[in-house]
Amino acid sequence: MSISPILDRENSGVAVSPVDWVNGAPVRIVAITAIQKVRHTMIFDPMYFVFLIPGMAFVMFAQWKVTSTFKKFSNVPTNRKMTGAQVAEEILRSNGIYDVPVERVPGQLSDHYDPRSRTLRLSEPVYGSTSVAAVGVAAHEVGHALQHAQGYAPLKLRSTIVPVANIGNMLGPIMVIAGVLIGLTGLAWLGVIVFAAGTAFALVTLPVEFNASSRAMAQLTNIGVVDRTEYGQARKVLNAAALTYVAGFAAALLNLMYYVLLVTGMGRRNE
Ligand SMILES: [Zn+2]
Predict the structure, then answer these.
(1) C-alpha 210 – ligand 1 centre gap (Å)
(2) 3-class state of residue 100 by DSSP
(3) pLDDT tens, residue by residue, 101-154
(4) Residue 183: count of CB within 10 angstroms of its CB
(5) Catalytic hit among 89, 90, 141, 209
(6) Mind listing the pLDDT tens digit for each residue in 68-112?
(7) Whether the Cβ atoms of residue 87 and residue 138 lie closer than 8 Å to each other
(8) How far is the CA of 145 from the centre of ligand 1 (A)?
(9) Catalytic residue at 271?
(10) Domain boundaries, the chain
């Protein structure tokens, strides 16, 4: 059975099934088949547009949204005039945490809490700024430090999945494509499973991020660094940031579904 009508037209009379290669078809045909299969899979497959393009579009929209929201509220100063770094230190202290240093890190939106070194790193536009955006982001990162200090379970789970997820995101797609190309269904399914680890990571990231933001908002109120208006504005910045994680998970899930369909279809084609 042929792979697609496109291959039939371009390759009339030549066997293109991977099964034929296993049975000893010439290498040249395998190469042509491989290239056409990649073209088929990557370009001509309508499922590609159904699953992958919307995911990418969502990710790009969320990136734009967080960048523009951050920029907008970077120009709105808070009345208390505390910098991001001061807010972070104040929240840490008021929660009895004295062993988490607050450092300055280059880049934009590169703010993060590093659980391995127990260090809070704030980007240039956050560290020394007194804007609503800076204060919100700084408090969010402290939210992660509080999660760590209190042994918040989803954060622990997330840290456990990290290495597997990194390998899965890198090797999963290669294994799926290689499996499809050489007709090894087992390898392709293994690729799907490995890739699923990355999707699981994106899923576990959601509660971790939402929780850090709600902790941030509560802490901003506790230390009295924002007024009612500023509270709402900081919330908008953190909501925009959260959307990037939702988009990341949606894209990963769509990608996973695409691979599942690809491998399932591969089994049908080989019958
Ligand atoms: Zn976060």
Answers:
(1) 8
(2) coil
(3) 999 999 988 999 999 999 999 999 999 999 999 999 999 999 999 999 999 999
(4) 20
(5) 141
(6) 999 999 999 999 999 999 999 999 999 999 999 999 999 988 999
(7) yes
(8) 10
(9) no
(10) 45-77+152-269
